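Anyone up for a design puzzle?
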């Protein structure tokens, strides 16, 4: 069994404050960033151990938050079944692409450490990909990063099996992909702070839920997120200038002052029309 585990950071166990996860912002003390990264690494290590114990034959662990560099690979169980990706772009064979290794041979996508989409009330650090985006829609349905990543996986027929995060992120995943297993480890107190299980308990919960997700995927109880094609994809920008700049990309249409739209023939192109991120990407410097 092959699992692709794509880690973000906002929804990880024990992370309760903005400064622990958005550590690049001005005035954040180095110890806050170090604490956040340590908590994330502990989460990854615990979940990897649980998945290998559940019989996963091949496990890809991808560190995607803020371009990667958050997880200490030395802390992850050293096992030939585990491949660690320090960033979300890389080579698969001769191709440079997003999420290398996520393909038709993958049995399940897991999205631990995730957060709710932009504009979600009662959510901890809700956003969608970048601060300039106020909303992202697939065929008219508002989705966040959970939906974008599940859609990309759907191109290969891979179901979303697990989401870990706050109450809002878990509810979003359950509405999008019925049957998905969720590990709710925190609740928002405000957009910038949350409370929840102590880190050790949250890690144990996530590990148990990951094993449950493997069992559901193995039993064929999960379906991929596969919107109707061709697919309409639209972004509502926070500023008119942002929409104007986006509309300069080939194939992008500006539908109102703040919104741009494209149409794609493949789920794998869910953000390639706007960011160039997907399959057959141009490698920097080539």
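Challenge accepted. My sequence:
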């Amino acid at each position: 069994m092959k699992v692709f585990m794509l880690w973000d950071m906002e929804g990880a166990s024990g992370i309760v404050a903005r400064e622990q996860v958005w550590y690049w912002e001005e005035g954040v003390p180095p110890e806050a960033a170090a604490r956040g990264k340590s908590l994330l690494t502990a989460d990854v290590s615990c979940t990897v151990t649980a998945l290998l114990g559940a019989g996963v034959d091949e496990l890809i662990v991808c560190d995607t938050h803020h371009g990667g560099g958050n997880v200490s690979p030395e802390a992850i169980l050293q096992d030939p079944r585990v491949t660690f990706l320090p960033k979300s772009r890389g080579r698969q064979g001769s191709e440079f692409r997003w999420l290398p290794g996520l393909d038709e041979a993958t049995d399940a996508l897991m999205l631990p450490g995730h957060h709710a989409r932009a504009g979600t009330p009662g959510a901890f650090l809700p956003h969608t990909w970048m601060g300039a985006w106020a909303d992202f829609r697939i065929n008219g349905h508002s989705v966040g990063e959970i939906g974008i990543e599940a859609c990309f996986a759907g191109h290969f027929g891979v179901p979303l099996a697990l989401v870990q995060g706050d109450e809002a992120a878990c509810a979003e995943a359950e509405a999008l992909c019925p049957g998905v297993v969720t590990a709710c480890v925190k609740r928002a107190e405000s957009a910038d702070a949350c409370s929840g299980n102590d880190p050790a308990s949250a890690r144990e919960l996530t590990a148990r839920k990951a094993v449950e997700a493997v069992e559901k995927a193995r039993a064929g109880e999960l379906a991929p997120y596969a919107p109707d094609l061709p697919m309409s994809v639209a972004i509502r920008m926070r500023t008119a200038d942002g929409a104007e700049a986006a509309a300069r990309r080939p194939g992008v249409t500006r539908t109102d002052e703040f919104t741009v739209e494209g149409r794609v023939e493949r789920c794998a192109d869910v953000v390639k029309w706007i960011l160039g991120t997907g399959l057959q990407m141009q490698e920097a410097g080539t």
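A detail worth pointing out: The CA atoms of residues 127 and 261 lie 19 Å apart.
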